[in-house]
Amino acid sequence: MITAIFGSVELGIIYAIMALGVYLSFRVLDFPDLTVDGSFVTGAAVAATMIVSGYSPITATVVAMFAGFIAGCITGSLHTFGKINPLLSGILMMIALYSINLRIMGRSNVPLLNSDTFFTNIRSWWGNTGIDEFLNNIFSTIGLGAFVPRTWGIIFIMLIVTFAIKIITDLFLKTEIGLAIRATGDNKRMIRSLSANTSGLVILGLGISNAMVAFSGALIAQHGGYADVGMGIGMIIIGLASVIIGEAIFGTKTIAWTTFAVIGGAIIYRIVVTLALRVEFLETGDLKAITATIVILALITPKFIDSYKDRKRKKQKMLKLGSLQSANEKGDQRATFNTD
C-alpha cells in the first residue's frame, strides 16, 4: 500500500504540470480547452519518436513543449480569427491532433523500453550520490524499509522541475502581459475597450497552457516507457479534477497559493485513485468512473459544507437574537414591577 502511494505521488507531481496548464486555460482564461486530450499525446509522441531516432531526451522534451505550444496557438486562432465557439475549437483541434499524432509516431504505439530517457538518466546519476542509501536507512530504522521507492531521485527532481514551472507561471501572471491575460479571462469586453489585443492574449495563453500539457505528456511517456495514441483520453477531466480538488482543499487566496493548490490537488487525485483501485470490487477499467466520481464529489462537497456553515451561522444568530429579546423582556418586566 505505502509503495503504491509513493508511486502515485511520483506520478502526481508529473501530472501537476499538466494540471497547471489546465488551470491557465480553464481558470485564468476562462476557456474550456479540450485540445488538452490531443496535445498531451502530441508531447508524448514527439518526445518518444525523437528519442527512438537518437535525439537526447532533453532536446526531445523541449521540442515536445514547442509542438504543444503550436497546437494551443492553432486552437486560439480558430476561436479568435475563425470566430468558432471555444468548446468546438478545442474539440476540432483534439480530433485533428489524433491523426497528427499517428503521423508523428508512424504507428499507434512507440515503446521506449531500451532507450535512454530523462528518467533513466536521473536514476543513473542519482544512484551515484548515495542519497537513496541514506534515506532508505532512515526508513528502515522506523520499520518502513520494505516500502521505500526504487529511487528517490525522480520525486526530488520532479518536485524541483514542477515548482520551477509553478514559480515561472506565478511571475509570468504578474507581468504586464500576464495581468492582461488574467483580465481577458475576467472581462474580455472591458480589456478590448482599453485597446488591448485580446485575440493575441488568448492565443498566447492557450499556447503556454498546451506547452505545459505537452511537457507533462513527454515526461509521462518517458516515465511509463511508451507513447500511445490513446493515452490522452480523459486528460482534461484529470486536469479539472486536480484543479477543483486543490481549490476545494487549499483555497484560492492568491495566484501563487492557487498554483500551489493545483499541484497539491494533482498529487491528492493520484493518491485517491490509487486507494480506490485497491478496493476489491473495483477494476482498472473503472478508472474513468472513479475520476468522474472524484470530480463530482469535489464539486458538490464544498457547496454542502458552505450550506451547512450558512445554516449553522443563521441558527446561532437566531439563538443570539432570541436570548437578547428574552433579556429585554425580563428587563421590561422588572422595570414595570419597580414602578408599581
From TrEMBL:
Spans annotated as Disordered: 321-340
Keyword Cell inner membrane: no
Segments passing through the bilayer: 12-29, 41-74, 86-105, 152-173, 194-220, 232-250, 257-277, 289-308
Membrane-protein topology: Multi-pass membrane protein
Cellular compartments annotated: Cell membrane
Key words of the record: Cell membrane, Membrane, Transmembrane, Transmembrane helix
Principal place of residence: membrane
Top-level division of the source organism's lineage: Bacteria
Pfam families given in the database record: BPD_transp_2 (PF02653)
InterPro entries: ABC_transp_permease (IPR001851)
Protein name: ABC transporter permease
Provenance organism: Sutcliffiella horikoshii
